[in-house]
Amino acid sequence: MMSKYLIGKAIVALWLTLIIIAGFAMPMVPSPQQWFELPVIPVLEEKARIIFFHVPMAWTTVVAFFASMIYGMLYLKTKNMDYDLRSVSAAGLGTMFCILATITGSIWAKFNWGSFWNWDPRETSIFVLLLIYGAYFALRSSLDVEEKRATLSAVYSIIAGVTAPFFIFVMPRIMTGLHPGAKGDEGGSTPVAQLHMPANMRVVFFASLIGFTLLYFWMFSLKVRSARLEFKSQKL
Amino acid sequence: MHSSTRGGRSPLAHYDSIFKTYYHQNLECGPAKLYLEDALKSLFVPAYYIFLKDSRSELRTRYALNALFMFVVTALSIILFSLGSEAVSSDVLSGILWVVIFFSSMSGLSRTFVSEEERGTVATLQLLTRPTPVYVGKLIFNFFLTLSLNVVISLLYLLLINNFVIQSPAIFWTTIVLGSAAIASASTIIAAIIAKANTKGTLYPVLSFPIMLPLLMTVMNATRLATEGAFFAEALGEFQILISYTVVITTASIVLFEYVWKD
User: Fold this and answer.
1) Alpha-carbon distance A94 to A161, whole Å?
2) A190-204, B106-120, B177-191, B193-207: segment of lowest average pLDDT
3) Which of A120, A166, A175, A183 has the highest number of chain B CBs within 10 A, making it the mutation to test binding with B?
4) If exposure means fewest CB atoms within 10 Å of the residue's CB, which of A58, A62, B116, B188 is most exposed?
5) Residue B85's pLDDT band (boundaries 50, 70, 90)?
6) Using CA atoms, how far apart are residues B13 and B1, in angstroms rounded to an integer?
7) Which member of A76, A134, A143 has the closest CB to residue B196?
8) What is the CA radius of gyration of chain A?
9) B256:A155 CB<8 A
10) Kindly report the CA angle at B115 between B111 and B116, in degrees rounded to 5?
11) Over 80: is that where the pLDDT of B68 sits?
């Protein structure tokens, strides 16, 4: 049991270390020759490296949100308290990744778009996601009975989940925005931004997506186990 | 029952007289003849009586209506004072209109469920009918409350604010009707949730705002189109979003309401 977690932990740590080294250290040259050289993107230049870290964070936020919603559904179906522990753990991690994605994006926006916050559709969406997480925890803290708290927060996360497509797909289409894939973008407006990246950059990017997802699952398993212990100790 | 000590008709007797008609009809049918018509009847007949009960108790006390009307007047006069003689663009004005509508909905629409909790009549309703008709009845009541509220707000707004001129009334009034339906569908399920929580009043806008934001952005956009004098066809995309939003939220609410309602 213990060794399984240890191996998993080691893989995640090694994987993310490699991603961080690759993300920061791969040189950017005007005309790449070697496999490790990235092209210089006009205007963005070194700032383009954010894609290896910021996008996976935002992706993990969405994964955590849907994990929380699905565990909420399973709780409603089975009334097993363990699913509520998982749901709240996923929501907690989602909040953390959401804050990280917002902060990294905001700092980057200051240097690339000129101000910390521009109310671009994707910025609006992540802001709303933060509000949903905030509302979720505000609701939980105002309910005393465990079963009631688990049920109502699950219902709320499902209601919030069914409105998510309206943000992810509809809102960026209506407003013009600064992110890739927004209305008015040369590459065409698509629900998921099209990737105009050279092959090696794409490899690092997807490896980073996988790495952050694995990191999420590792933190999730830690958080669920500690939540179970806390739940047990409250019962004693 | 503790309710009999309150004087006048007890709530139990009140509900009993309302539901008697429906239940006697249903008993004569028998379970063997439950066709689609009966299934619809068993949903909409009790829902209609829930709607009737809420409207009657609202019209008798005018608790929400009076408070809401004064809320609207207060909000509009604050806007008038703050605008002064400033010429504000119709973009901003169509945004402010929906700010007023959002906050008046937030102060009035939670009452349908909160009052049941406060009066202790939840158990009575649970005994008398299944969860879905309760939700549908409350939704219809909230829809009519929101619609009448929004019509009043819009008329006062058009009357009081000179810069706010609607070029295409068809778009504007369709937005008001569809927007009311969307607001009612989202706020009814949130009201059911917060009725069980400790901090009802503050929690309601907090929980509703992230859910309602796509809807608010859409209605603001549609209102802007109405002030610019766009053709009806140009606003069709907005109306499609509003309709799909209402359908999605109502469907999810009907499925989930059972879990909220049952203790």
Assistant:
1) 13
2) A190-204
3) A166
4) A62
5) confident
6) 11
7) A143
8) 20
9) yes
10) 125
11) yes
Report how many Cβ contacts below 8 Å link chain A to chain B.
81
Gap from A159 CA to chain B (nearest CA, Å): 7
State how far residue B34 is from chain A, nearest Cα, in angstroms: 27
Q: Which residue has the higher pLDDT, A194 or B250?
A: B250
Residue pLDDT, tens place only, A140-195: 999 988 899 999 999 999 999 888 878 765 665 566 666 665 555 544 444 445 55
Q: Can you say whether the dihedral through the CA atoms of A16, A21, A27, A31 is positive or negative? A: negative
CB–CB contact A131 B256 (8 Å): no
Section B105-129 average pLDDT:
87
**Is residue B238 very low, low, confident or very high in pLDDT (cuts 50, 70, 90)?**
confident
The one-letter amino acid at B63: Y
Residues of A in contact with B248 (CB under 8 A): 162-163
Mean of pLDDT over chain B: 84
Angle B141-B142-B148 from CA coordinates, rounded to 5°: 95
Q: Looking at residue A87, what is its pLDDT?
A: 94
Residue B218 and residue B235: Cα distance in Å, rounded? Answer: 10
Q: What local confidence, expressed as pLDDT, does residue B103 receive?
A: 92
Confirm if B149 and B105 have CB atoms less than 8 A apart.
yes
Domain spans in chain B, listed from the N-terminal domain onward: 55-261
Chain B interface test: which of A65, A98, A144, A159 (most B C-beta within 10 Å): A159
Least Cα distance to B127 among B15, B10, B7 occurs for B15
- Top pLDDT among A114 and A148 is at A148
Cα distances (Å, whole numbers) of residue B108 to B62, B119, B121, B184, B192: 12, 17, 19, 11, 13
Q: Which residues of A touch B (CB under 8 A)?
A: 76, 124, 128-129, 131-132, 134-135, 138-139, 142-144, 148, 151-152, 154-156, 158-160, 162-163, 166-167, 170-171, 174-175
Closest-CA residue in chain A for B257?
A: A155
Note the pLDDT of residue A93: 94
B193 contacts on A by Cβ (under 8 Å): 139, 152, 155-156
